[in-house]
Design goal:
The protein is α/β, with parallel strands linked by helices and 239 residues long. A 6-stranded mixed sheet has the order 1-2-3-5-7-10, with helices on both faces. A 4-stranded mixed sheet has the order 4-6-8-9. Strand 2, helix 1 and strand 3 form a beta-alpha-beta unit. The N and C termini lie far apart (49 Å).
């Protein structure tokens, strides 16, 4: 199996990407991150796809980054930023640029990059047994890239606590802190999570696109401009 062997499936208007590394805790190499960003772009550009799912199998949703064999020897700061940090940031960017909702189905623990990946998605469905953590500070790493994925999705005070404490939080606390959208009992997680995705995918793509576009753009507008933008988008959709 090559490191690029994500499992991509289609069920109606739902496209699913399975990280497909359960034996490695679904950790991702930087090359795999680059491939994931490419896949997200391709699926988002398909007019027959209304929902994109990121999921995995095994005990962990994603255990973070697989850095085995990596070396920065001889690289300039610019090369490190582009070749190493860029792969991570491109995943977050790709999720944001998918025109339709991206759902993270977090069946197990989400750690470091895995937690950021889950939070970066538009909807994060958490198994009742899943836990979320950002342990980078324990390795003397400031997790600015993980924080980048969480900005605007997790309240500032909650994000500060999670980053500085490196504490692992369960699904109930993840909901309270803004890490997850909904808890689903672990016994029914796969069935109920995919039922949710199927229901969402049955909405018109234009409606789904408009909701995501508005939520992304309106947060940067003043209240009066957000109101004007809301009316303008709705008028365009309904015309």
């Amino acid at each position: 199996m090559s490191e690029f062997d994500f499992v991509v499936k289609r069920e109606g208007a739902v496209a699913s990407i399975d990280l497909n590394r359960p034996q490695e805790g679904n950790t991702l190499t930087r090359a795999m991150m680059t491939r994931l960003a490419q896949l997200l772009g391709q699926l988002g550009a398909d007019p027959t796809v209304n929902v994109v799912v990121i999921e995995s199998r095994g005990e962990l949703f994603c255990g973070g980054r697989d850095g085995k064999g990596e070396s920065r020897a001889g690289m300039t700061a610019y090369e490190i930023r582009v070749k190493m940090m860029g792969a991570v940031l491109d995943v977050y960017k790709a999720i944001a640029q998918v025109p339709v909702p991206v759902i993270a189905m977090v069946q197990g623990d989400a750690v470091g990059f895995g937690a950021a990946l889950a939070v970066a998605c538009d909807v994060t469905l958490s198994s009742s047994k899943a836990r979320f953590s950002f342990p980078e500070i324990e390795h003397n790493i400031p997790p600015t890239m993980a924080m980048c994925a969480a900005l605007g999705k997790i309240p500032s005070k909650a994000l500060s606590f999670l980053i500085y404490s490196a504490e692992s939080v369960g699904s109930a606390e993840a909901i309270q802190l803004g890490l997850a959208s909904k808890i689903i009992d672990e016994k029914n997680f796969h069935t109920d999570a995919h039922a949710f995705a199927k229901t969402m995918s049955e909405r018109p793509r234009l409606v789904l696109e408009t909701i995501k576009l508005y939520q992304e753009k309106a947060t940067h507008l003043t209240p009066d401009m957000a109101s004007e933008y809301a009316g303008t988008l709705l008028a365009l959709v309904r015309s």
